[in-house]
Design brief:
heterodimer, A: mainly alpha, B: mainly alpha, Helix Hairpins
């Protein structure tokens, strides 16, 4: 290691990952009560990694051989577990995405969180998140990745429950933590399988062909599926996606950073990271494809009926994550990863724009925002429209290219049902995103009635805005610190699409041969345009009734409003199996076996002590006599007995 | 004619037996302490005797005896202070009165 400290690349990696955790410690211990100083520390500790990350990406653009810095932590004949940094195109790109979005969100939060009593704490948590996510992306070993994975989970828990005085927020934090842990148990077991049967957790070794020789196919499938459990938890895939929509209880910048752009993408990143390993098991890939598809369809349909703007984007995130996993599982590493990249830009943009509206109007309900004149906020309105266009996949925005990539990968599969599911998902995506846009952009007469009804309901409910007191009701206009990130992200949303070729060259090492299939292109754009058109008819047109087309089928609409009854299912599952079965029996076991065992030991100790204490006669000389006699007996035995 | 190993071993055994009797039978703590010293001296005599008659190297037994003397001195100091403490608490140095820890 000593030699490596003179290596600038290693130093850059080290500084990138260490600075944010230092900032977390400093703020939590010393400067939590001082917002200005905390902000300065945290911004420094995110700006330097930002510069270093872009510098590394620039320096190693076109890198052929991965760069590895390993600290041999636990090495023996049968187990090899490293800690360190692995720089290859996959990790460099993720590092840059994370550093960029996290810096933008930190800047944005200056405006959004200004005046919050927990300002310092907020920045400390953001730093903790930055540390874990940056280190996760350049981990050289799976154990290190797993540790960071859990740390991002912790940061997510802390940030969702940031306004912990609010019961729903602390509940949502707990739910996120417990549900993702549910998947992580699988991840950990997968790692254990790998360690036992393969014994090498270096990412490059896991990705090498040696795995297939060391482990039989069924073991690889088992390990891959177990690791995929972790992916399902972190990337909110069906059926354990239920935590992500609730996670929107956190401050909006957090939703943008953690719960759309970076942290939830960690699951997809993990698949991309050990993509050759996953590819070694076609069964696991098929399961992933099916789960991604279900997730895509399920969450897009729920997004069609939500009236909370963050809920819409949350379900959209879930569905796009499903879409990425579909792309990866369909065999196209680049398509999935590229969609992750573009999604990070436009989904962060969507959330940050929504944050501006939420901050401004003190509500999460976009009908109320529309009624109060959301369209008057020019920059956010324009950028949110750009982001929604990208989400819907309209040329020439980023989303168009990445969606094309995934649909192209799906079209290569023998079974065309995946392609149709993908196209249907694209249609639904366009519909729900433009439902929001049209309502906010062209508030028609019925919108005002809906808004009035919603605000009555909100007042009756007593929830006013999302924890964010808007005491400065009069002082309006959006501060530049909030507009700047929007503009930068909008820039990326507009340009990332044209970098497809360069990125593909960088990530996969060879430029893709794009035979553009016209029917596919037409059907993809057609699906998106059909979605937008339907949204226009339902919500945007002059005499639109402003009810979703779904309301013609009330049963289906209700099914979607109830979120496919997934929350009910888990509640039932918890009550029946966890509380009713496991908890009951474990409680019984605890009371009777564990407690009983301890009690038995204690009682027998007391009882025997009470009995034996009778021999403590306090007759010193009698005791001595016995001692002498015993010694004499032993002596006699030793001398003559044998 | 008595200058041989057996004489000294007998003497030591006699001394040890007297000491043991004193430890087991006397009621006064001081007497018990004196008896313990007797037993220690018996052991010392054994060492010296074996050294004198069986082992050509002259110093070994003497060194051990010197050790025993030092230990005995320390032991006597501690034991006497314990006896004083017992006396202050119980106003007695009878072994049979020291029975507060009876089970």
């Amino acid at each position: 290691m000593a030699m490596q400290f003179s290596d600038t690349t290693f130093l850059a990696c080290l500084v990138t990952s260490i600075l944010p955790i230092l900032s977390f410690g400093l703020i939590m211990i010393f400067t939590r009560e001082n917002p200005k100083l905390s902000l300065a520390i945290s911004l420094t500790a995110s700006t330097i990694p930002l510069i270093l990350a872009w510098g590394l990406l620039y320096k190693y653009w076109g890198i052929q051989e991965p760069l590895v810095y390993n600290l041999r932590w636990l090495y023996s004949d049968i187990v090899k577990i490293p800690f360190g940094f692995l720089l290859d195109p996959t990790s460099l790109l993720m590092l840059t995405i994370v550093a960029t979005v996290s810096w933008l969100v930190q800047v944005y939060s200056i405006g959004y969180m200004g005046g919050d009593p927990g300002f310092g704490r907020f920045y400390a948590f953001l730093s903790l998140f930055a540390f874990s996510m940056l280190t996760l992306s350049i981990s050289s070993g799976l154990l290190q990745l797993y540790i960071c994975w859990e740390l991002v989970g912790l940061a997510s828990y802390l940030l969702i429950g940031f306004w912990y005085e609010k019961f729903s927020a602390s509940e949502a934090g707990k739910k996120a933590f417990v549900v993702t842990r549910f998947g992580d148990v699988g991840f950990f077991m997968g790692l254990a399988f790998l360690t036992i049967y393969y014994g090498n957790l270096e990412i490059q070794q896991v990705n090498s062909a040696a795995v297939a020789q060391a482990m039989p196919a069924w073991l690889i499938t088992t390990a891959a599926l177990l690791i995929f459990c972790g992916v399902m938890g972190k990337s909110a895939q069906f059926p354990i996606h239920v935590w992500l929509p609730d996670a929107m209880e956190g401050p909006t910048p957090v939703s943008a950073l953690l719960h759309s752009a970076t942290m939830v993408a960690a699951g997809v990143y993990l698949i991309a990271r050990i993509y050759p390993f996953f590819s070694a098991s076609p069964e696991a890939m098929t399961v992933a494809l099916a789960i991604g598809t279900i997730t895509l369809l399920l969450s897009s349909t729920i997004g069609m009926v939500a009236s909370d703007i963050k809920q819409v984007w949350a379900y959209s995130t879930v569905s796009q994550l499903g879409f990425m996993i579909m792309g990866l599982a369909a065999g196209s590493f680049f398509a999935g990863y590229y969609h992750l990249t573009t999604h990070a830009a436009f989904k962060a943009l969507l959330f940050l724009c929504s944050g501006v509206f939420i901050h401004h109007f003190g509500t999460n309900d976009f009908f109320i925002m529309a009624a109060n004149g959301a369209r008057k906020l020019k920059i956010p309105m324009v950028t949110i429209t750009i982001a929604a266009l990208a989400l819907a996949g309209i040329f020439p925005l980023a989303g168009f290219f990445s969606k094309e990539g995934i649909l192209g990968a799906l079209a290569h599969l023998d079974n065309k049902i995946w392609l149709f599911a993908g196209l249907f998902g694209a249609f639904l995506t366009a519909y729900y995103s433009f439902r929001v846009i049209f309502v906010m952009l062209f508030p028609r007469e019925p919108i005002f009635q809906i808004a009035a009804a919603h605000s009555h309901a909100e007042e009756a409910h007593g929830s006013h805005g999302h924890g964010h007191g808007h005491e400065h009701e009069e002082e309006h206009g959006v501060p530049w610190v909030m507009n700047l990130p929007l503009l930068i992200l909008a820039f990326f949303t507009l340009t990332l699409g044209f970098l497809q070729g360069a990125l593909e060259q960088f990530l996969t090492g060879h430029a893709g041969h794009h035979e553009i299939s016209i029917p596919l292109l037409v059907s993809a754009v057609g699906a998106a345009l059909a979605g937008i058109g339907l949204a226009w008819l339902d919500w945007g047109a002059k005499n639109a009734k402003c009810v979703g087309f779904l309301s013609r089928v009330p049963a289906l609409e209700n099914f979607f409003i109830q979120k496919w009854y997934m929350d009910h299912f888990w509640r039932w599952f918890l009550n029946t199996f966890i509380y009713g079965l496991f908890s009951k029996w474990f409680t019984y076991n605890d009371r009777r076996v564990v407690d009983g065992g301890v009690d038995a030991v204690a009682f027998s100790t007391v009882g025997s002590g009470r009995y034996l204490s009778r021999y403590q006669t306090a007759l010193l000389q009698v005791n001595l006599l016995f001692m002498v006699l015993v010694m004499a007996g032993v002596g006699l035995y030793l001398v003559m007995g044998r | 004619m008595y200058n041989n190993l057996q004489t000294f071993l007998l003497l030591a055994a006699l001394l040890f037996a007297i000491g043991l009797y004193g430890v087991l039978a006397r009621r006064s703590l001081i007497a018990v302490l004196i008896s313990v010293e007797l037993m220690l001296n018996a052991a010392s005599i054994n060492f010296m005797a074996f050294n004198r008659f069986l082992i050509p190297e002259p110093a070994v037994g003497q060194i051990i005896t010197l050790f025993i003397m030092a230990v005995a001195a320390a032991e006597a100091a501690i034991a006497l202070s314990i006896i004083i403490a017992v006396y202050r608490k119980l106003k007695s140095i009878n072994v049979e009165h020291v029975n507060e820890l009876r089970g």
